[in-house]
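Table S7 (text form). Paired inputs.
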Amino acid sequence: MAVRNSRRNRKSEYFFDYTLLFVVLFLLGFGLIMIYSASSYEASDKLGDAAYYLKKQATSSLLGLVAMFVVSRIPYHFWERFATLGYIVSAILIILVLTPLGMELNGARRWLNVGVSVQPAEIAKLGMILFLASLVCKMGKSIRLTKGFLVVLCVPVPICLMVWKITENLSSAIIIFGIAFLMLFVASPDYRKFIVIALIAVTGAALIVYIIANQDPGNAVGGFRGARILAWLDPESDPSDKGFQTLQALYAIGSGGIFGKGLGQSMQKLGFLPEQQNDMIFSIICEELGLFGAIAILLMFMLLIWRFMIIANNAPDLFGALLVVGVMGHFAIQVILNVAVVTNTIPNTGISLPFISYGGTSVLFLLIEVGLVLSVARGIQLKDL
């Protein structure tokens, strides 16, 4: 009897996911190593500092870790009051790309120069997760009705269109809509609607590919994206232009074999593979660490997603669960699309590999998202049995 009373008097312990933290730190550290390995030659040749990209990414990673720790200590419901503001600010920042604050890099105008370069699309991903989680909770059971379902489905459309048309970043627009779609899928019990939407999307994509593949060469459609689809179908048809990056990535993957050439021994990074420290860094991983290294990294991402699922399933409430689902969707979609692009499974488009590709804004906001997940995890109570 005394033992039972002592157990009742004990305070409930709060959960902290050390496995998730370890995986994040491992991927961050591995990313810094690969960024240095992939970029040192180009940075030394063009910028006079072999560690230029490493230093910038390390700075962003440190800021991101501080932000992650701070966000993880703040109760996640605190951010619910800023959900609508986050959606509005995301839209405003995207529009500001058209102003003198807009910044063009590598032929794309996707950044804002506010003392440091900031990519509004990355902020929009976090803003969309917060806003949709709050909206779904407020709508309650009305989300099961067709009207409610369509309202939630249409919420990300304006942001997606702005990201696509203003910043010409179709890949980020797809990711934002994918995040919203997954959150709605988890919140809505009627899976038939999602099957219909998926069939329409797949049919539409197949029709577009068919039209572009069978077009009259003298009357090309689709612009540069149409050219990318043609290069995806047959990279060797345009080896010096649209198919160049894809072919070089495939050469890197193929030459790596099972165990790779060794860390730092890549040949494709020596001026052959464009964006080797950014979108195509997975091909450098394959070349230097081989199939073994590539699978090991994918397994780490799978472990990361699994930890997100565990936290989402045990979240104290729907808002917390949806926050984690949104973050999980962001990571999963981005990893799948990046690997698919590098291996030429889908047409080439600019998608970074979380924590590993070079990008200050990306790593900063990814770590903030992880902080949100850790905050939700802290709300899970481990009561004595």
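Next pair, protein 2 of 2.
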Amino acid sequence: MKATEPVSTQLPFSRPFKVEEAGDRPVEIDIVADEAARSAVAKQAGIPALGSLKARLRIEALRRGRIEVTGELTATPTQICGVTLEPFENEVREQIEAVFAPEKDAEKAAARFASRPEDADDEASSEEPPDPIIDGRIDLGQLVVEFFVLGLDPYPRKPGVAFEAPVVVASDIAEESPFAALAKLKQPKGE
């Protein structure tokens, strides 16, 4: 990419939700990524392919304009085995739990979270700040993508494959050791 080209802000999987639709009762939504979205998500995640990506979400309005999103996502990414370097299809199942707040409230909470002492161990100060509600909307698709990427195994291994460390013979180590070479130099010349 050239330095003069604009950076794309296009999200690979976007499903905006108007927070005003979260009324007095929780809303249940099923989200399924189409082929184009799965391809874009796979590219963003750095994996060869994504066979399926879907989520069942429950959206509930909380106090002070906050929105809670809970649910579960399932996906079948193709990953590369860290041992054999062969592609294989894996399964990802992740629980989703996020809280959104009006933008100014989310910014204040993020600032408090960032300024807390590192050794603070009380639950209130270590709680993650809410994500912002932007223009009265939250992006459920992007939320699903974030949890999907977090659920990917960073060291994928094809089922049934085990890593076998190379066998090292003790005599090989002694000959290669710099201390073994020094020991030889210290020996009298006749030995």
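The chain has one domain: 16-186.
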